[in-house]
Amino acid sequence: MQRRKLRPREGWQRIVEEQGLVWHTQDGKPYWDESATYVFTLKQIETLEAAAERCHELFLKAGDHLAKRPEKLARFGIPDWAIDAVLAEWKRDRPALDYGRFDFGWNGSGEPKLFEYNCDTPTSMLEAGVVQWQWKEEVFPAHDQFTSLHEKLIDRWRYMARDLGGRVWVTHHADDLHEDTVTATYMRDLAEQAGLETRAILIERIGLDAEGRLVDEEDYLITALFKLYPWEWIVAEDYGREIVRRMDATLWLEPIWKMLWSNKAILPLLYELEPKHPNLLPAGWDAASVGPRHVVKPILAREGANVRIVEDGRETSRSDGPYGAFGQVYQQFYDVPEFDGAYPALGVWTVGGEVAGLGIREGGRITADDARFVPHIIEG
């Protein structure tokens, strides 16, 4: 695993904008950063693939475990009145995209170590599935890349089309940075390429009819909804109870059972189930269970907020944010390799349980919202 410096393409901003990535710069600095590339061997890519496949199987095991032992959900911060619906949807196994991004730390040898799983509202799909591939085709046409996310998502939408009745609504929050807008627009385009009719609506404009069912601005019943809006936010809304009560009226993508997987409270459970798993770091509910070098994470958070790194009793890094009131988990610290002052997090995508590509974000020791997306190639 290497990081090579490169000269960015002339006019790269215009190029990626034409590919849909209008959010490519933040605070005057590139978010899409092609001034470097990470280089992997085919064997290293196969190691990452195998790690993601094993982790997906482990998350399935954890979901079944929680369905049989719902008392363990007390630490997940899920409202008591929503737990039955979460477990009922897990057992029903209705159609889902079942997509997500396993974030690993790795130095290129041994086994990658799982940091967390982003599978309710993951972002950076367009970058991973389209923009870095087009960059590779232009800059390194003779090389390969670990990227099949675009094709696998289209196939998954096509696979679910009949269950969706041929139509799906796509919603997100109106975000100032437009990251959610880019992701939701990309997902809508994928669904249309799969033959679905799509309708876009901001989540703030979704309403409830007299029977408590979801309707759009024209009062059409929303029968299937892809939402880029976390379930923990939905259940906290004034209408959260009504949505959970009428779960059958709308097919949610992703389903409410993603509250099990996307919650970092699952990390101690995973380690409890398989403490010798090659891709797991020790995780628990206190520092004593993971050792003197550890990371403290809120069970519900976004973009690396409210994370602390502690080494031998001394806090060496921290990030601020609005999630400090949530419960915390402790995870053993992993030494991510440093490249020119940057620390990469390797995001391996899966769709329907199948590996689908790699996206790399690099930044400080805590991967926060200012982390850059850096493309990769396979060599050797």
Q: Explain this structure to me?
A:
The protein has 10 helices and 21 strands. It is of the alpha+beta class and 380 residues long. α5 packs across α6. It is globular.
Summarize the SSE layout with pairings:
Layout: E1 2-5, H1 12-18, E2 25-26, E3 29-30, E4 36-40, H2 42-68, H3 80-92, E5 99-105, E6 113-118, H4 125-139, H5 149-160, E7 167-172, H6 179-193, E8 197-202, E9 207-208, E10 214-215, E11 224-228, H7 231-236, H8 240-245, E12 251-253, H9 258-261, H10 266-273, E13 283-284, E14 293-298, E15 308-311, E16 314-318, E17 328-332, E18 343-351, E19 354-363, E20 372-374, E21 376-378
Parallel strand pairs: 4-21, 7-8, 7-11, 11-12
Antiparallel strand pairs: 1-4, 2-3, 5-6, 5-18, 9-10, 13-17, 14-15, 14-17, 15-16, 18-19, 19-20
Low-confidence stretches: none
E-strand count: 21
Task: Tell me the helix content.
Answer: 25-40%
Rg on CA atoms, Å: 20 Å
Helix/strand class: alpha+beta
Please state the overall shape, judged from the principal axes of the Cα atoms: globular
Strand content: 25-35%
Q: Main sheet: which strands, in order across?
A: 6-5-18-19-20
Mind describing the biggest β-sheet? Answer: 5 strands, antiparallel
Distance between the termini: 11 Å
Mean pLDDT: 95
The count of helical stretches stands at 10
